[in-house]
Amino acid sequence: MLDIRWIRENREKVEASLKNRGASFDLEGLLSLDEERRRLLQEVEALKHERNVASDEIGLLLREKKDTTSKKEEMKAISQKIASLDEKVGEISKKLDYLVLIIPNIPHSSVPLGEDSRANKEVRSWGKPRKFSFKPKTHLELLEHLGIIDFKRGAKVTGAAFPLYVGDGAKLERSLIQFMLELHTGKHGYQEISPPFLVNRESMTGTGQIPKFEEDMYRLKDDDYFLVPTAEVPVTNLHRDEVLEEKELPLYYTAYTPCFRREAGSYGKETKGLTRVHQFDKVELVKFTHPDKSYEEHEKLLKDAEEVLQLLEIPYRVMLLSTGDLGFAASKCYDIEAYAAGTGTYLEVSSCSNFEAFQARRANIRFRSKSTKASQFVHTLNGSGVALARTVICLLEHFQEEDGSVLLPMALRPYMGGQERLTTPPR
Question: 78, 129, 393, 395: least CB-packed within 10 angstroms?
């Protein structure tokens, strides 16, 4: 969330940000409401002063044993007008609060300008796409051959795009999660969190999922709870409405959760197999940092996520997102795209974002400076470390053999009980 005073004082920057993002927003309407609210508040303050003066005059008249009827009527009329104006201020404030919550964050100066993903810039790549001596299969063909995911029964139990992992498929998911959590806690210095998979409306508002994207979320109507779209939500809200000490920063957290997304805006996109599903597993990385260190920490966060794919020996590229492709809450974002050899495409498996104070202002997360003792907002960062559904696609397609079996990368074998490959189960 942007500060309303900052918006007022930096109108041109906000206008440029909205234009560069391709975002439709009535900035003039917001500023007009803000001006009206401030005008009314000034009027209320003036009336309160009049009321105080009238009250003092009534006190004087009473001490002098004079008639106070007309003065009391005057004060009553002022009080009624104040009440009416307070009601108007409340209505305007409610509208302003909503509008401020749906303004996207300001892109960092290093973010490339562009209308969409075509303007994204490749920062670096790692590994080389494998050359096959045979025609590689797609992950759908491999899944069918190996029998490790049952889409039909998943759809029967819940609905379309809810995969059901079976046998070695379930073992592979569990092993990948364990491998990533141990890497991030043991080597990268993150503290593991096992958060609730349901969060309240305040938590979803704090990280920016609502009100802007509420239609994409799964909501429990009776309790007004939401299934987590990512562990970013519960983990970032660990420190909502708290004031941290500067010496505590930076804080690193990692968490596994399933992620639930309705994908309401994704009609017409690829929906076969694991490419776009309503439930997927993900290990998340979250940081709370000092504002002066957040972009340094952003680069470290990116490298932590990259190491997952390096150890899994999956080729990937790092893309710096343009203004037109940047997420709503992010000031800067890198996508890590792993190579899917069966289809010859790159799939996003991680987004590593710096939100600066955008989430912290919404969630009221501050730190107290050790020198000035004043408090200010922390900067929050997060990234997938990494998302599994598409990582599984790339792993299967990259390590497939001509007979349809799949070799397992060395780093993963200890978590698979020493198993070296996925093969068709005996019938």
Answer: 129
Q: Where are the alpha helices (DSSP H) in 364-415?
A: 388-398
DSSP, res 165: B
- Specify the pLDDT at position 206: 98
Residue 102, pLDDT above cutoff 80: yes
Q: Clarify whether residues 37 and 130 are in a common domain.
A: no
Q: Which of 21, 51, 261, 361 is flagged as catalytic? A: 261
Of the listed 175, 331, 351, 353, which one is catalytic?
A: 351
Same domain for 281 and 184: yes
Structural domains counted in the chain: 2
107 lies in some domain: no
276 is an active site residue: yes
Mean pLDDT of 134-163: 95
Please tell me which residue in 348, 401, 405, 413 is annotated as part of the active site.
348
Structural domain boundaries, residue 16: 4-101
> Which residue among the candidates 284, 356, 390, 397 is catalytic per the annotation?
390
Say whether 262 is catalytic.
no
Q: Are residues 65 and 170 in the same domain?
A: no
The answer to pTM > 0.85 is yes
Beta strands in 229-378 (DSSP E): 242-245, 251-260, 279-289, 316-320, 332-340, 345-354, 365-368, 375-377
317 is catalytic: no
State the catalytic residue, choosing from 276, 317, 368, 413. 276
6 by DSSP, 3-state: which? helix
Q: Is 263 a catalytic residue?
A: no
The mean pLDDT value for 331-337 works out to 98
